[in-house]
Structure formats: structure tokens, C-alpha cells
Amino acid sequence: MADLRVQRHEEKYLLDPLQAACLRRLLDAALRRDPHCAVGPYRIRSLYFDTADDRDYQEKVLGLSERQKLRLRVYDPAAEAVKLELKTKRGVLCGKQSAALTRAEAARLTAGDAEFLLARAGSAAQHIGALFLREQRRLAVLVEYRRTAWVLPVEQVRITLDERVCAAKCADLFAPAPPLVGVHSAGAVILEVKYDHFLPGYLRRMLSTVDTVPVSVSKYAAARAMLY
User: Fold this and answer.
1) pLDDT digits (tens, 9 = 90+) for 94-151
2) Distance between CA atoms of 227 and 181, rounded to whole angstroms?
3) How far is residue 74's CA from residue 46's CA, in Å, rounded to a whole number?
4) pTM of the entire structure?
5) 157 alpha carbon, distance to own chain's centre
6) Which residues of 84-121 are buried (b: 16+ CB within 10 A; e: fewer)?
7) Is 136 buried (19+), middle (13-18) or exposed (0-12) by CB count in 10 A?
8) How far, in Å, CA of 125 to CA of 92, rounded?
9) Topology, domain 4-227
10) Dihedral (CA of 206, 210, 213, 215) sign
């Protein structure tokens, strides 16, 4: 997988289980599911890094319009492929720089060694590696959840429902059974809506049938608040 750089709109909503179930039926009738969740939700596990003074977490709590998150992401703890991602927010736009790492490289980064990233000249990996070293990033928290995703080629629309959000004070991205605890009460589900420039009108009307408003919800911040 090559390095990836994207910038797009992102909206988030917090749903109760009934709202999520109703919306799931509507989305299944209108959109195509991501192939990875054709028969059910798939797992996502992320290991976040923050600064010594928890700047990313504090900026989220304060609601600053410009902020960032740095993480390793894997979809199967036994898999070889790992994503290194730097997410940024600038007003209404969210950006993401992503690079592919091997399992061994991810383990090196977890141990605090980011020097190898600097060898990838002109890449997102090099940029993230420089930031990691300059800001002396350290392990913060592990987050895991189940995702169902729907896609539409128009405006690169991607709509997801994330449920069973859990977190652990664990430094091992590949741990077979980390000590996870639930983050949200009452089975809350996170709805995320991502698109390039505009969301097609029929999808906007569909989402409006769910009685909720956009919120600034962060799995990372919620995990930190729960565990620390």
C-alpha cells in the first residue's frame, strides 16, 4: 500500500442502539456495504501516541478547531499489514496522511524507534517520523471497536457505524486479548459521515430521519477520559 494523503469533510453523531438499528436498515437499502463487512461488522484496533503533556488530548477537550491525532491501526492482530496514520482537523475539513508498515516496523515504533521512517524520502512516513521524533511521542491508549461501512463513489461518500468501543492501557497493538473496558454507556453507537465536497441530498434527507445533531465525539478522547 502506497502512502496516502486525503482531505475531506467529516461529520459525527452519537446514536442510541434503536437509532442505529433504524439507520442501518435505511443504509442497507440505499447504499452498498464495504466488502469487508458484507456479512457483519469488522474489527478495528488503534494504538494512539501523544506528547508528554498530552497535547492532542487536551486540544480535543478544549475544542480547538485545529488539532491532530497519531496512531497505528490494524484490522487483525495476527495480520502483517499495519497502517500508520496522522489525522488533522482544520475547521470543517479533516485530513489524513497514511503509510503502510510491516508488523516488525510497527513494533519498532511502539518501542519508540521512529528513525527508520526518515529513510522514506518525500513520503508521509518521513513526515510522520519527523513529527514523532521532534515531539517525543509516547504511547497513550489502545482503542478497539466494530465497524459497519457503506460507500458511494459520488463524492467518495463513506458512512460508518462504530459500536462496542473499548479501550485498554496496553502497549501491544498485536495482543490477542488486551484488558479492554467499555468506553460508552448504554450501547452508544458512533455514526461518521465522510465526503469530499458535498453530501448528496437524498443521503442528507435520510440522515435527517435520525433525531440527532452533529457532535464532536472522539474515541481517543473518550478512552483517555475513561482510563486516566
Assistant:
1) 999 999 999 999 999 999 999 999 998 778 999 999 999 999 999 999 999 999 999 9
2) 9
3) 6
4) 0.94
5) 16
6) bbbbebeeeebebbbbebeeebbbebbeeebeebbeee
7) exposed
8) 25
9) mRNA Triphosphatase Cet1; Chain A (3.20.100)
10) negative
Q: Are 195 and 93 in contact (CB under 8 A)?
A: no
Q: What are the extents of the domains in the chain? A: 4-227
Block residue for cell numbers 496522511: 97
| Distance (Å, whole) CA 184 – CA 190 | 10
Q: Which residues lie across from 69 on neighbouring strands?
A: 87
Q: What is the pLDDT of residues 55-106, one digit of tens each?
A: 999 999 999 989 999 999 999 999 999 999 999 999 889 999 999 999 999 9
